[in-house]
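Fold Annotation — chain and its backbone
Next Lines — sequence and tokenised fold

***
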Amino acid sequence: GFKKQGVSLTILAFIAKAVAHLLKEEPYFAGHLADDRKSVLLRNEIHMGIAVATPDGLTVPVLRNPDQKSIKQIAVELGELS
């Protein structure tokens, strides 16, 4: 299992993967209005800011391209970021 490999698998890794999948399927969900206020800009890459409590307070590291990673890779990276 993941524990034997030193990987902390939490629900957050699954949520990040599910949200990344949603953003791939529904790109308008992460789109934003262009400066001309007449068109919507869509992003080609997915990056997520995930708030983490640290001894120095709350920080928000960025999980890059979770849509291209496995649940295990996401869990490892979340562990490293936090």
Q: What stands out?
A: Helices lie at 11-25, 71-81. The chain has a mean pLDDT of 90. The first helix runs from residue 11 to 25. The chain has two helices and six strands.
